[in-house]
Design brief:
17 helices, 7-stranded mixed beta sheet, about 20% strand, binds NADP nicotinamide-adenine-dinucleotide phosphate, globular, about 40% helix, disordered N terminus, alpha/beta, 6-stranded mixed beta sheet, binds magnesium ion
Length: about 500
């Protein structure tokens, strides 16, 4: 499909948003070009066509954004307004996201490739994220401490300051919302950097924030690549970095942040074990094992990429899962009924097909799929590898594509030991009708989220984050307030 064909299908608002001049940076409430005028292209992964030109922020632009955020923080235009007013504004922003969910969803589908229905659903989720955190400003309290009677001691919970927030491309606006909503609820200001592959919805969010009444300079968006992100991390006037993305970049960020001792929270990769015992509800387990790894084309940090099957059900389960997976329609996210879109970029396509080759070389067998789909766009067949040992690269390294490694096990001990045998610890799941087995496994699995008889279930109130090299810090829920506030002890001598 040619670019012009795609565009004629777009609703008016989305077309206006895309067809303007190059998308600019959003700094201090204004659209501005990059200081050196550089731009980059964002690509529709379903067509390999350019969607829009995007301003490429360099050091000078990051400086400007940080200065705007610093000024907005220090003069109290956001921090010092009454909590109930912050709530009203954040709730208004939630309503605006919801009212524009169709347009935002379309932008997300074009930029990322994911099915439109899913993208639009995610946008409603973003509205819920803002709605949830809109409830917090009036409920963030300090404490009075039981020091001796000659002193009055209390703790204030204060915002951290300027927050640099670096976002991946797999759930662009959802991940931005998990960071921006709590940061604003706590009274901080933000410099947000979306991934170069998917910058569009973050830019639209900036517009909606202004419309909702978030003061200028409070939410700044700088587009660019990893160098742009690195300038934010190194900037001496940024107080905190929140990052979601790869372990490799997470490591670089932690090292770079050491120079200025910034607060850092990291949500990194995963290689999550999905453990199915022979006594599980097979039909649900089969369906969920497939959707748990193939949704979003496997580009989910919590994807169920290691499927552990009890010996006695192995062959039957793989057969049923392959049948179910064949019924999931692969294609462009704008097509009716599509459940699996393309991977996000040519780079990701290389990576995923590279891992499929590695799996074959390691001796695994593709029970389903196993190659790129021969058409325009970055499409890969959903791939189920059997004959996998947990020490193979395809079982240890994050592929971030529609590829699952099936590994047999004998009993609870074996499943938990193999499940935990990874550098990651983001999520895990257990399928069984035996309550005791479920709770024992849930306690023994080293992961920030454990699901029993379900996958990827959660709510804004449940904390989300990693054990081991999957990162640290918890987003969502009350836990996120710890990332965006700091405690101050005040002692008054009476
Ligand atoms: P990535 O490099 O970790 O990108 C994540 C974000 O960090 C992007 O906004 C990126 O900018 C930025 N960034 C890159 N280098 C940086 C640096 N030195 N300092 C500050 N920010 C920096 O992820 P990717 O390269 O897109 O994907 C590679 C792999 O990461 C995937 O195959 C997957 O395994 C993993 N990944 C994990 C998640 C997750 O949710 N845990 C999400 C995405 C990817 P640019 O994109 O603009 O360069
Ligand atoms: Mg793109």
């Amino acid at each position: 499909m040619a670019m012009t064909d795609v565009r004629t299908e777009l609703p008016e608002a989305a077309r206006r948003f895309l067809d303007g001049k190059p998308k600019q940076l959003f700094i201090d409430g204004k659209w501005v070009d990059a200081a050196d005028g550089r731009t980059f292209d964002t690509i529709d992964p379903a067509t390999e066509q350019v969607l829009a030109k995007i301003a490429f922020a360099g050091k000078e632009d990051v400086d400007r954004a940080v200065t705007a955020a610093r000024t907005a923080f220090e003069d109290g235009r956001w921090r010092d307004i009454p909590p109930r007013k912050k709530e009203t504004i954040l709730r208004r922003l939630a309503d605006l996201i919801e009212a524009n969910a169709d347009e935002l969803g379309l932008l997300e589908t074009l930029d990322n490739g994911k099915p439109l229905r899913m993208a639009t659903g995610e946008m409603r989720g973003c509205a819920e994220t803002f709605r949830y955190y809109a409830g917090w400003p009036t409920k963030i309290t300090g404490d009075v401490l039981p020091t001796d009677p000659g002193k009055h001691s209390y703790v204030r919970r204060e915002p951290v300051g300027v927050c640099g927030q670096i976002i991946p491309w797999n759930f662009p606006l959802a991940m931005a919302s998990w960071k921006v909503a709590p940061a604003l609820a706590c009274g901080n200001t933000c410099v947000l950097k979306p991934a170069e592959q998917t910058p569009l919805t973050a830019l639209r969010l900036a517009e909606l924030a202004i419309e909702a009444g978030v003061p200028e300079g409070v939410l700044n968006v700088v587009t660019g690549d990893g160098t742009t992100g690195a300038f934010i991390v190194e900037h001496p006037d940024v107080d905190k970095i929140a990052f979601t993305g790869s372990v490799e970049v997470g490591r670089q960020i932690m090292a770079a942040a050491a120079g200025t001792l910034k607060k850092v929270s990291l949500e990194l990769g995963g290689k999550s074990p999905n453990i199915v015992f022979a006594d599980a509800d097979m039909e649900t387990a089969v369906r969920t094992a497939s959707l748990g790894v193939f949704m979003n084309t496997g580009q989910i940090c919590t994807a169920a990429t290691r499927l552990f099957l009890e010996d006695s059900i192995h062959d039957d389960f793989v057969g049923r899962m392959s049948e179910f997976t064949k019924g999931l329609k692969v294609g462009p996210g704008l097509d009716e009924g599509v459940l699996i879109g393309p991977v996000v970029s040519d780079e990701q396509l290389e990576r995923v097909t590279g891992y499929i080759d590695i799996g074959k070389e390691e001796g695994a067998e593709a029970a389903l799929g196993g190659k790129r789909i021969d058409r325009a766009g970055y499409f890969v067949e959903p791939t189920i590898f059997t004959g996998v040992r947990n020490d193979m690269r395809i079982a240890q390294e994050e592929i971030f594509g529609p590829v699952v490694s099936v590994i047999p096990f004998t009993d609870v001990e074996d499943a938990v030991t193999q499940g935990n045998d990874t550098q990651y610890g983001l999520a895990a799941a257990v399928w069984t009708r035996d309550i005791s087995k479920a709770h024992r496994a849930a306690a023994a699995l080293k992961a920030g989220s454990v699901w029993v008889n379900c996958y990827s279930e959660g709510d804004m109130s449940t904390p989300f984050g990693g054990y081991k090299q999957s990162g640290f810090g918890r987003e969502r829920g009350e836990a996120s307030l710890d990332l965006y506030t700091q405690l101050k002890s005040v002692v008054v001598k009476l």
